[in-house]
Amino acid sequence: MAKLVERESRKNDPQKTKEDILNIATEEFSAFGLSGARVDAIAEKTRTSKRMIYYYFGSKEGLYLAVLEKAYRKIRSLEADLELADLPPVEALRTLIASTFDHDEKNPDFVRLVSIENIHHASHMKRSSEIGELNLSIVRTIDEILDRGRREGVFRRDIDAIDLHMLISAFCFFRVSNRYTFGTIFHRELSEPDLYNRHKQMIADAVTAYVTCQPKL
Amino acid sequence: MAKLVERESRKNDPQKTKEDILNIATEEFSAFGLSGARVDAIAEKTRTSKRMIYYYFGSKEGLYLAVLEKAYRKIRSLEADLELADLPPVEALRTLIASTFDHDEKNPDFVRLVSIENIHHASHMKRSSEIGELNLSIVRTIDEILDRGRREGVFRRDIDAIDLHMLISAFCFFRVSNRYTFGTIFHRELSEPDLYNRHKQMIADAVTAYVTCQPKL
DNA sequence: TTGATAATGTACTAACCAGTACGTGTCAAT
DNA sequence: ATTGACACGTACTGGTTAGTACATTATCAA
Q1: Statement to judge: residues B46 and B125 lie in one domain
Q2: Shortest Cα distance from A174 to chain B (angstroms)?
Q3: Tens digit of pLDDT for each residue in B108-126?
């Protein structure tokens, strides 16, 4: 007797298979960390099998690295398209801050992956040629704004672009990365719209106040 | 024939055994995370055996929670002893910021544990009655400073103490928690003394500039 | 059509790792 | 000195998990 269940014929779609794996893996690694994530769990949630993970990515760490690289590739692509050259320096800065703030708010997965990578001393990132060459354009952008501000006499002169980027980044990142412990200790839901707006305003105010103030001795 | 090797007699020292385990475990969890740390590895580095870990802490998670609680207990004890009441508001604030800055700088283990706990959605912290009751005195301290500053007319009036604490904390924490990725991307060694001083100055300047500036509309 | 290569599925393995069974040693109070 | 509770060590187990062996199907170029 012939098989009653017709086995549906397999479709080869390497592109999609890879992407599917990467997407699921991003969720899993971001949720459980590198050692916490389970390859089997990833495989199960995929359209395909564990075999394919090793076929395309070689190892768990290989998959993790691919996830990390994809995450950084995404932010690099987002970084370019801000038109700030024709805004006055303070406005340009505020726009940039708002964009950083929203980016972290909208990409908790990315934030978590970066946190995880820091737990691992950024060792995978260091080994990645792709990420290693990230020469973040955001710093150039900040540098230009600072330069214009100084020439126009509205900014203090002793500010380093990378330092300033860190000041901005730190707040935006922390709000997302430490959402849970901070929220628990202070009984605040850091994802509420009220706080979102207030915090966005605060970091913009703080940074602009800083860059426009006179240096303390 | 009698044993040639005299087995040295065992000493029971439960206090020390517990502490020993806790100290090693703190290192291990902070280095590898909750899922990355290995109970066997912890046991080996201990004077005692794996058996004792389960004897005193019940499970790997139990041990992790004990580590976390000890870490938070430590900061709570450090928080109290700042004498700020007789300083002018701006100076009081700068002192407080310096203290937060140094605390995170000197306690990377604590910072890493908090990062790890955030990866886990602060779930252990929530379950801990001890940590759950952390009603951080630092916020009260900030509140008092803000109050005095407002009364003296030097601070803007629309600042929330917890928000301000977050602004300060975020920078101090990020500098340590994201040391590796940030350092790798921007080719900066965030532990260098030069940067240490500059950053300490910067966060103090930024926060004081913010609290003393006029609100933007 | 064919055959080479790329893509995929199934079933397995070996190592690892949290947790335990079971027994021994310590010490203080009686 | 005995006893009982606490402290501790050794050796093991059973489930988990990263990774693989092997067979099969799809695809496409010649």
Answers
A1: no
A2: 5
A3: 999 999 999 999 999 999 9
